[in-house]
């Protein structure tokens, strides 16, 4: 990075565990405003757990997560909720609310958090759907559309409130190459034009090189962060064999 | 496998040789020879093999280097790979250098086995306190989580009159329709048959005392005081309670609850409140309906089998109810049953684990817990009513 931007999220000495099973230890990194941070690592290394902790769904055992210099773990619950409402999240399977149509899924956050009229909310919902190529599927229920479409609907819902930070958990899995590329382009567009910050958990190499400004690599054996930086430069610089294998798709 | 080995294989297929091993020792280096058939299909337990292995290392404490040798003649499959891998791991852990002299294919398979990632337990907690915590924490959680849930539900309910709730009226209406109107057919059938059966059973006994007309009293009082609420409670527990647990549990599995939370929507207000309120509203209404249908069942037996006139039967039914308390006591019970079913169903749904097995368990547990609680609550109500001389 030539111009160092301000850090919008900073993670310090984060330790995560499920009961007495340690998932990650002493993870520290910063996410710059308007950048795309990719969290990489093999299956089971704790990528999704780290993401859940960053969005407030899992309290860490130790450490600090700050958003706009405010510690998310120590602020009042109501204020924390307000800060977290600036996040948009796409879960691995889309996590659409199955009792609602796709359009209702996207409109619900707008209904609950804005005072816009119903007609305007629907317009906004339709616009978000068109951004992910789902126009025409407004009245379908999640069970009636394909897995890839559910994923795209999840992306549209995550963008519903124009969040400052978007967290994507495996956004490209289940998408065909064309839609995967389209999603990468969308991330780059939103990042450049709206200064949206992205935290993306993925192991799709093509996507990583396309979208990442910065990345962290989690090692499942050491249970911590072992490399950080732009993946293109990590490809040439790092001495970590696991990361090299990962980035070069070697076994 | 060499030709020689192939030749021996033919012989071994007829007479399989159980797996075995023996050791040769020179100065500080030992050689372990694997012999026999190390095939899964050959069978034979490894007890004697393990005994030989352990007794060797118990006796030869000075050994710090060992060569594991598998001859080409040895018949093997993944059984040998698993054995060597596990023993090799232990030897390396004990600081004994391991050298392998294996056929090429076996060597590759042993190399293929990836390193086991040790699950890191919290080192700050000792083994003893760790096991205590492993037991104590779930134990406390078992008691505290229903109380936390109940507390959160009461708070959400209190927020309702202040209009500080995320509950949507349309969700409440949908739930009312789902657990009320949609349950009418099954409630009709069960209640009618309950009234009918009571009338049949009662008529046989009352006939002995020439008091057949009291069948109307029997059916009416039993339905309004007890059976109407109880039957509706049991139907609702199996139908609606289970459906709440399954619905919310599968939402948890699909991360839908997490996505609600990330949008600042409380599952308690958004999912639990409309469901429990719908049951609170609909269960007493269904109970009134079940009371009437049950009495119609009694009327059918009274008029068709026992030859009473419809007006006579209805008059007797009206006379049997001394006051509205008889009806209200049944409705009070149904209100409690509705609340129990709603809360148990939603609680079990929210506390479903992350697997489809736990979803099934939640649903089963909902029905069992709700039905048990309904019967216990019913008994408690009767004891209280008797103590207060309300019967």
Architecture overview:
With 251 residues, chain A is α/β, with parallel strands linked by helices. Helices cover 37% and strands 25% of the residues of chain A. Chain A has nine helices and ten strands. In chain A, α3 (102-113) runs parallel beside α5 (147-158). The model of chain A has no long low-confidence stretch (mean pLDDT 87). By secondary structure, chain B is an alpha/beta fold. Chain B has 13 helices and six strands. In chain B, α8 (215-253) packs across α11, α8 (215-253) packs parallel to α12 and α10 packs across α11 (310-320). In chain B, 32% of the residues are buried. Classes of the chains: A alpha/beta (251), B alpha/beta (391). The A-B interface holds A 17, 19-22, 25, 52, 55-57, 81, 84-85, 87-89, 91-93, 95-98, 108-109, 112-113, 154, 157, 161, 220-221, 223 and B 115, 117, 119-122, 125, 130, 133-134, 137, 166, 250-251, 254-256, 258-265.
Mean pLDDT score of chain A = 87
Main β-sheet description of chain A: 6 strands, mixed
Strand order of the largest sheet of chain B: 1-2-4-6
Oligomer: heterodimer
What structural class should be given to the helix and strand makeup of chain A?
alpha/beta
Straight-line N-to-C gap of chain A = 31 Å
What's the number of structural domains of chain A?
2
Task: Quickly count the helices of chain A.
Answer: 9
CATH H level, superfamily name of the largest domain in chain A: P-loop containing nucleotide triphosphate hydrolases
Helix content of chain B: 55-70%
How is the secondary structure organized here?
The complex is a heterodimer of chains A (251) and B (391).
Chain A: E1 7-18, E2 21-32, E3 36-41, H1 47-54, E4 62-67, E5 70-71, H2 77-84, E6 87-90, H3 102-113, H4 118-131, H5 147-158, E7 165-169, H6 177-194, E8 197-201, H7 205-211, E9 214-219, E10 224-228, H8 231-237, H9 241-248
Parallel strand pairs in A: 3-8, 3-9, 6-7, 7-8
Antiparallel strand pairs in A: 1-2, 1-4, 4-5, 9-10
Chain B: H1 3-14, E1 20-26, E2 29-35, E3 37-38, H2 47-59, E4 65-70, E5 75-76, H3 78-93, E6 97-101, H4 104-112, H5 127-159, H6 169-179, H7 184-208, H8 215-253, H9 256-262, H10 267-304, H11 310-320, H12 325-350, H13 356-387
Parallel strand pairs in B: 2-4, 3-5, 4-6
Antiparallel strand pairs in B: 1-2
Helix pairs in contact in B: 5-10, 6-10, 7-8, 7-10, 8-10, 8-11, 8-12, 8-13, 10-11, 10-12, 12-13
